[in-house]
Design a protein that fits this description.
It is a single chain. The chain is α+β, with helices and mostly antiparallel strands. The protein has a domain of 180 residues: OB fold (Dihydrolipoamide Acetyltransferase, E2P) (Beta Barrel), CATH 2.40.50. 29% of the residues lie in helices and 25% in strands.
Length: 267
Amino acid sequence: MPTRPALPCSSPAHLTRICAGLSLLLALSLSSGCDDSGGSTTPALDTVENTDGTVDATVDGVEETGPIDVVEDLPPEHTELFNGTTVTFGHVIDGDTLDVFVGTRTPARYNIRFKGLAAPECIKQSVKTEKFGTRYQCTADDEYYGLASRLALVGMVEGKTGILTCDDVAVGARCPTDVYDRTLAYIEVDGKDIATEMAYVGAAMSYTSFSSSKRAQICEAEYSAIGAKRGMWAAGTVSAVLNMMSQQTQNWYNSNHDTRCDAALGI
């Protein structure tokens, strides 16, 4: 065992005590670095690979950069809105627009506009919700059945999860958005397409002004609702219901709705 020269401790009593303590610490540091054969006993550094690909140095498997329970074997999480994403439903704005969340640890919120569907318009106001903070939502009819349409959608999705799909992109690719940064998509819940279900219960119409891969099934559902007088169609004939809508809705519906629905259905 190597020796070290003694510290000069021939000072007054209070300095003598300090020097004695320092000498003891030096002796301990020498002995802790050697075993009986003269080899080092200092434990070797290990490494722990983090989930983000970085590496932390550890001693005997104990991470030096934080508590040992911060290294978790968790898979990377989906935080983007891709074709085929599983979503949790959030705030419903109106009968064809709502929020969804993606992820569980730090959920990301996205605004969805159902493609191929047009719900009656409503008056929207900023309201403080119980779960989702301050958000816009229907508070009264702007067109006939606007508020009832929102409530129908709430009843279909509240507390559920669904699978989001979109047109024109491959599974796993980012879904398209409109000029308002809303994702244009469809959502399936318990094996049923929500846009189609909204048309079937008479709470919305097939939006034929824009293309949709689900036009045929949404049109078929709407025709069924008209024939059975479900939802808004209970108010009377198609013309009578349209007369309670805005001029803009009447224009697009009368100009192309039936011809494009019939073409999609092969009628």
